[in-house]
Design brief:
It is a single chain. By secondary structure, this protein is α/β, with parallel strands linked by helices. It folds into two domains: about 5-160 and about 310-435, FAD/NAD(P)-binding domain (3-Layer(bba) Sandwich); about 165-310, Beta Barrel (Elongation Factor Tu (Ef-tu), domain 3), CATH 2.40.30. The protein has helices at about 15-25, 65-75, 80-85, 100-110, 140-150, 195-210, 220-225, 230-235, 285-295, 320, 345-365, 380-385, 415-435, and strands at about 5-10, 30, 55-60, 90, 95, 115-120, 130-135, 155-165, 165-170, 180, 190-195, 260-270, 275-280, 305, 310-315, 335. The strands form four sheets. A six-stranded antiparallel sheet has the order 10-11-12-13-9-14. A five-stranded parallel sheet has the order 6-2-1-7-16, with helices on one face. The longest helix has 23 residues, at about 415-435. The chain starts with a strand and ends with a helix.
Length: about 425
């Protein structure tokens, strides 16, 4: 017999949002947070919802995917976005917060909620007969990591994130690119970006001199051994990439009739074919440097990067195989996941996953129908992305490339994003009206 309470493991952004959503529905919550008894390598503040990196929640504009996601969360009654709005600091069109005040206000709201009990203990065992949300983030403790690994059968849990940049297909210059497979084999699955000698040498020079992102000390050995960054490979010699991920053999450029000097390949990243990733471009460059350097590649001058390459410690499950759109395990329906451990990336995305997991855990314990958002919403499309089978699954943030595309062709990017945002808000509003 399942007890009439829900466990939430992890007092970060996702866990706090999940606990709040459950409590709002009249169900008791046991929120487990190992701080202040034990801290992860990246945490130092005893409060809940600690922000460890940038204090920015990104843009508030509806023409920005994260801005649209925040507006959807406001309509859905998110506690943490409400507090973020209340603790904002001047940041132009972005929503940035005073991180200490933000964490204190979240902590106060959770502590003062009579339906939530905060338990400051590390959890290393997950009950088989209680409803539980696991929201332990990218730095899940070793004890719980082992338990989760056993739960997902030792094969669907990743210990670090080494991912290449992902680009919107409609921002690639197809007058420069061509579609083909090496030696003409296969089904023409790749978009190829040919480079001549001058273009390659300019790109290589900028790549080897580009500025790197700072890794935590505990990440450095693990990340480097797990996968080599493209900039490290490039520094081994000017031709190293031409014998590696940029090798041109097996191709003829149909625009010139000649073999390229080097070639960058893009591989389809989602089932709809709207997103493509840069093959072999795992990188530790700063995001701004990735935009600058990779835009030098012919065909990517106006590329829209929906996700930059990352190489950092990031525990995440293969949600596409393990979870349904309620953030619920397919094979253990009393277990839910939320936050970056599900493969969503970013503060707002983590909050959003906690909101949906919390609502659905409450519905599960009340034996109600699942709360599944329309795919035409930003959150609905993000959920669809992380719960749809995908053999090349990598963590994803909110972006317009994962939304169903419009029936009408709008060439102007800003106008296209405005229309997609309007459709999303309209769909969410209608969904909530019909759900009452």
């Amino acid at each position: 017999m399942i007890e009439r309470h829900i466990n939430v493991i992890g007092g970060g952004l996702a866990g706090c949002e999940a606990a709040y959503q459950i409590a709002q529905r009249g169900i008791k919550v046991k929120l487990y947070e190992m701080k202040p008894k034990k801290f992860s390598p990246a945490h130092s503040n005893a409060d809940l919802a600690e922000i460890v990196c940038s204090n920015s929640f990104k843009s508030n504009l509806h023409t920005n995917a994260c801005g649209l996601l925040k507006e959807e969360l406001r309509l859905l009654g998110s506690l943490l976005i409400k507090i973020a709005d209340e603790t904002s600091v001047p940041a132009g069109q972005a929503l940035a917060v005073d991180r200490e005040i933000f964490a204190k206000k979240v902590t106060e709201s959770i502590k003062n909620n009579s339906n939530i009990e905060i338990i400051n203990e590390e959890v290393t065992n997950i009950s088989d007969d209680e409803v539980t949300i696991i929201a332990t983030g990218p730095l899940t403790s070793d004890g719980l990591f082992k338990q989760i690994n056993e739960m997902v059968k030792n094969q669907e849990l990743h210990f670090f994130d080494a991912a290449a940049p992902i680009i919107e297909k409609n921002s690639i210059d197809m007058d420069v690119a061509f579609i083909a497979d090496r030696y003409g084999k296969g089904n023409d699955d790749y978009i190829n970006l040919p480079m001549n000698k001058e273009e390659y040498e300019i790109f290589w020079n900028e790549l080897v001199n580009a500025e790197l992102a700072e890794l935590h000390q505990f990440e450095k050995k693990e990340i480097f051994e797990g996968c080599m960054p493209i900039e490290v490979m490039a520094k081994r010699g000017i031709d190293t990439l031409r014998y590696g991920p940029l090798k041109p053999v097996g191709f003829t450029n149909p625009h010139t009739g000649e073999r390229p000097y080097a070639i960058v390949q893009l591989r389809q990243d989602n089932t709809k074919g709207t997103l493509y990733n840069m093959v072999g471009f795992q990188t530790n460059l700063k995001f701004g440097e990735q935009k600058r350097v990779f835009s030098l590649i012919p065909g990517l001058k106006n590329a829209e990067f929906v996700k930059y390459g990352v190489m950092h410690r990031n525990t995440f499950i293969n949600s596409t195989k393990l979870l349904n759109p309620a953030f619920q395990m397919k094979e253990k329906d009393n277990i839910f996941f939320a936050g970056q451990i599900t493969g969503v990336e970013g503060y707002v995305e983590s909050i959003a996953s906690g909101l949906i997991a919390g609502i659905n855990a409450a519905k599960y314990i009340n034996e109600d129908e699942k709360f599944i958002l329309p795919k035409e919403t930003m959150l609905g499309s993000l959920i669809n992305y992380i719960s749809t089978p995908n053999d090349k699954f990598q963590p994803m943030n909110a972006n317009f490339g994962i939304l169903p595309q419009l029936n009408q062709k709008i060439r102007d990017k800003k106008l296209r994003y405005e229309k997609l945002a309007d459709v999303a808000i309209e769909n969410l509003t209608n969904f909530l009206e019909n759900s009452k």
